[in-house]
Amino acid sequence: MEVRPDLHLHYVQACQILGQPRNPFIACVLQEADKSDKIRCTEGITLKMAGNNHLVPVQRVTDDDFGVLASVLDQAAFVTGLDLGCNLLTDAGAKTMATFLQENSSLRYLNLMFNDIGTSGAELIAGALRTNESLVHVKMTGNKIGNQGGMFFASMLQINSTLEKLDLGDCDLGQKCLIAIAIALTQNKSLKAINLNRPLLFSQQEETTVHIAQMLRVNSSLVELHLSKHGMKNFGVERLCEALYENSSLRYLDLSCNKITRDGAKCLGELLKRNQTLEILDLSANRLEDAGAIYLSEALSFLNSSLQALSVVSCSISSKGLIALSSAVKSNLTLSYIYVWGNKFDKASCMAFWDLIQTGHLNLSRTDVSPYKVDGQIYLAELSHGLQKHYYWAPRHNVVPEGAANTSLEIVDVSEH
């Protein structure tokens, strides 16, 4: 008869041996894990110890807490995922984590988002990833590792050949490390997705975008790229479009929260007429206006058969552009997700999207607007859907069902197992 592992018992014993008080949150998670049938499965289990878990009382994980936990997990090969997001880990905890990663050969998913790890902690973790051959997905989101910390990850990408998904968004990356990452990705053949959102850039010359575009000309493995909040203007978009004419692998491009206007949208429209690889395009919070929306609509109406999802949330689009987009959805059989909230709706544009939904061309689960009627007139209400709209908290609690935020649209399926 198979003996079930007892994580909770081992944790209690480790706390006694190391003289460390028990963290009730860790104890609760381990007790629940002991009951899981997935322990017997080959896919393993993910321990979800996120500090913003609203379902149970949380005592956030500290460096000392993780030291005890690591000693328990050393003997638990069935634990393949570890979510420690939104906790209190610092560079001292990163040192313990680095040692753990060098010795552990079963962990595939590691989430450290929004801890207090800095540059020296980033150096240790990136150093461990040089030799680790099991991790495929690492989230460092929101740790202020800075430009130098990003350089350590860029150096790691030149050596590591197993990592498939790396999240360095909101990490205060700088120009030098973005360029170094772009150069590393000209040679790296394993990475499929990278998040480089919100770096700290002070130049107006868009050097980083130029280097990323040059990388896309030769990289044939990357399928998901997030470049939100790069201060990107039409010049940078044009360089990316030129590169994507030669790229046949990228399927998800996030250019949200930049400075793209109608001219940049025109370049993207021309790209969509010829590119048959892109499946998801996020242009939220740019200033496309009606002209930009029409450029995109013309390409999508007749000449593109690959794009599945388009987000133009808060892009200063009014009735003319919104009606053009609704016509594109109606005539394009592939485009099935569209997000348009935050634009300038009037009676005609509300009617256009009401008609799309009523005729079955657009499913309510695949858009962020829902029509309703008052005194015979159609209005639109916002739905809580969108590309990565709830990225920073879902699925920490069950208020929004899994999938309601359309997070299933992520291309690279290497999240937890």
UniProtKB/TrEMBL annotation:
- The reply to whether Repeat figures as a keyword in the UniProt entry is yes
Q: Could you tell me the keywords of this UniProt record?
A: Repeat
Could you tell me which Gene3D superfamilies the record lists for this protein? Ribonuclease Inhibitor
| InterPro entries per record | Leu-rich_rpt (IPR001611), LRR-containing_regulator (IPR052201), LRR_dom_sf (IPR032675)
Q: What is this protein called?
A: LRC34 protein
State the organism named in the record. Neodrepanis coruscans
